[in-house]
Write a structure and sequence with these properties.
The chain is mainly alpha-helical and 155 residues long. The chain contains eight helices and no strands.
């Protein structure tokens, strides 16, 4: 893969990378840092990619790992008391419900339903078997339904 081809593919997936970062990180600056660091790492290590068909999967996996790195750093740096309280009603109910899910349920749902990746690609990105992706999506949908039903009955 030439440098121009690599750059073109990366530019095409920039919005996807930012949406995945949004599902992982709450601060805009952290999202931008994660995407930027992902692009840097992917560029430096592009020679390690064995099969060009898996470029998207490979880059998203780098992004997920980078988001985890930022989250680990934030845990060590920011005390919980310093976090601002969540603004009620600031986000649409579905988005708020999705963000409230545990990451292991949120990521398969985001990658499959929002980004449109097939189950096989989601499994490769998350390093889990296809059956695990399917069961996590089913559990995630159940949890979303429970959260959203709770909001309906509370209103």
């Amino acid at each position: 893969m030439t440098s121009d081809d690599f750059a073109r593919h990366i530019i095409d997936m920039t919005q996807t990378l930012y949406r995945v970062a949004c599902s992982q990180l709450s601060a805009s600056a952290d999202r931008e840092d994660a995407v930027q660091e992902t692009l840097r790492k992917a560029w430096e290590k592009r020679g390690r990619l064995r099969d060009e068909r898996y470029l998207r999967t490979w880059v998203i996996r780098i992004l997920i790992n980078e988001c985890h790195n930022i989250q680990r750093r934030e845990k060590r740096v920011t005390p919980m008391e310093a976090l601002p309280p969540a603004a009620s009603g600031a986000q649409p109910p579905l988005k708020a419900a999705l963000l409230s899910l545990d990451e292991r349920f949120r990521m398969p749902i985001l990658l499959y339903y929002i980004e449109g990746y097939p189950v096989e690609d989601v499994a490769a990105m998350l390093h889990v078997p296809k059956g695990t992706v399917k069961s996590r999506m089913a559990r995630g949908r159940e949890k979303l339904r429970d959260i959203l039903m709770e909001e309906v009955f509370e209103s």
